[in-house]
């Protein structure tokens, strides 16, 4: 599958995409993204002290939510939204009303391709989600395929390592640019990173929950990976596609490996059981929407992972609370989504000869 060149700019689809940014600092990084992001609406989720003022450069259309806002909007259901962890970004997914979401971290900047051209990350994500180009010789009968629900971009410069690898390779940098977009095969998991991620909110949004992480929890920095494992299992079940590769962004800041180790150490042990769990998940055919899939998955989390640590009992309950919050803020989305998924299945079904 050919990737769209970085110099090709797709129509902005400004009315169909929100950019979600979790942050604890002033958003000066937006200045570098201005030419790409300014046509879009930004949803900023402020982590940490809600009394602190976050500065946003002039000229951007945005709404900003802090912990007080989240408590006010969700009430008791706000317990499912994490803080002191980038998992807080998923509140932005809840309140958006757009078809697509692009989420990015505030230490990520515009990258350049090997020709020196700035990469329009949004254009590539939209291209990944809306369709693909095929080279000569690819059978037209195979070009319909499955709808793409997730576009997972990559990054140059600072690698996305866990703490032990950071300590072993403190000076390593990623300089390799691979001009490719790949579909992750059905039944294959991947470690999703949330700092350069696009997805179709209408198709898979309810499954994009970044879990209970950070403040008050025994684990952090596994938020995006948890969401990725859940989402991939559900996409596989619903017949939706997940792509990874282009676009690249420039990751500028390496986090402290000693702080990371404190956040990650339980996850490093637990993942030896978490991965086999997700590899073994089989969802019943009655699960026909992401909400139904996610509720069923929450039961399996409590049943299969609960014996490892009480945290997973709590996480399973939070997964249900998340779906309750999603349905409360998106009351008409479930029926519309069921119809769309049914249409996807009909389009993807083999045609009679």
UniProtKB/TrEMBL annotation:
<keyword id="KW-0333">Golgi apparatus</keyword>
<dbReference type="InterPro" id="IPR037595">
    <property type="entry name" value="RGP_fam"/>
</dbReference>
<dbReference type="InterPro" id="IPR029044">
    <property type="entry name" value="Nucleotide-diphossugar_trans"/>
</dbReference>
<keyword id="KW-0961">Cell wall biogenesis/degradation</keyword>
<dbReference type="GO" id="GO:0005794">
    <property type="term" value="C:Golgi apparatus"/>
</dbReference>
<dbReference type="GO" id="GO:0009505">
    <property type="term" value="C:plant-type cell wall"/>
</dbReference>
<dbReference type="Pfam" id="PF03214">
    <property type="entry name" value="RGP"/>
</dbReference>
<dbReference type="GO" id="GO:0033356">
    <property type="term" value="P:UDP-L-arabinose metabolic process"/>
</dbReference>
<dbReference type="GO" id="GO:0005829">
    <property type="term" value="C:cytosol"/>
</dbReference>
<comment type="similarity">
    <text>Belongs to the RGP family.</text>
</comment>
<dbReference type="GO" id="GO:0071669">
    <property type="term" value="P:plant-type cell wall organization or biogenesis"/>
</dbReference>
<protein>
    <recommendedName>
        <fullName>UDP-arabinopyranose mutase</fullName>
    </recommendedName>
</protein>
<dbReference type="GO" id="GO:0071555">
    <property type="term" value="P:cell wall organization"/>
</dbReference>
<dbReference type="GO" id="GO:0052691">
    <property type="term" value="F:UDP-arabinopyranose mutase activity"/>
</dbReference>
């Amino acid at each position: 599958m050919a990737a769209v060149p970085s110099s090709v700019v797709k129509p902005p689809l400004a009315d169909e995409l929100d950019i979600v940014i979790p942050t604890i600092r002033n958003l000066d990084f937006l200045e570098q993204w201005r030419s790409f992001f300014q046509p879009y609406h930004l949803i900023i989720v402020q982590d940490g002290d809600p009394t602190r003022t976050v500065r946003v450069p002039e000229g951007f259309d945005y709404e900003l939510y802090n912990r007080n806002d989240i408590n006010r909007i969700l009430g008791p259901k706000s317990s499912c939204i994490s803080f002191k962890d980038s998992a807080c970004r998923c509140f932005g997914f809840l309140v958006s009303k757009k078809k697509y979401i692009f989420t990015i971290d505030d230490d990520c900047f515009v990258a350049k391709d090997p020709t020196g051209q700035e990469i329009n990350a949004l254009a590539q994500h939209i291209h990944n989600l809306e369709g693909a180009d095929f080279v000569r010789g690819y059978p037209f009968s195979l070009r319909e395929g499955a709808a793409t629900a997730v576009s997972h971009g990559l990054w140059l410069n600072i690698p996305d390592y866990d703490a032990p690898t950071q300590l072993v390779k403190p000076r390593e940098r990623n300089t390799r640019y691979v001009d490719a977009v790949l579909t992750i095969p059905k039944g294959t998991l991947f470690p999703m990173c949330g700092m350069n991620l696009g997805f179709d909110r209408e198709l898979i949004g309810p499954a994009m929950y970044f879990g209970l992480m950070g403040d008050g929890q025994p684990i952090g920095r596994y938020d995006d990976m948890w969401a990725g494992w859940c989402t991939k299992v559900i996409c596989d079940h619903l017949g939706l596609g997940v792509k990874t590769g282009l676009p690249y962004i420039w990751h500028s800041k390496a986090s402290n490996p000693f702080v990371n180790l404190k956040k990650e150490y339980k996850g490093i042990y637990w993942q030896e059981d978490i991965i086999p769990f997700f590899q073994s998940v089989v969802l019943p055919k009655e699960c026909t929407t992401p909400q139904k899939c996610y509720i069923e998955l929450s039961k399996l989390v409590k049943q299969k992972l609960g014996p490892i640590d009480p945290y997973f009992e709590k996480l399973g309950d939070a997964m249900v609370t998340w779906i309750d919050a999603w349905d409360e803020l998106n009351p008409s989305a479930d029926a519309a989504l069921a119809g769309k998924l049914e249409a996807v299945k009909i389009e993807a079904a083999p045609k009679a000869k």
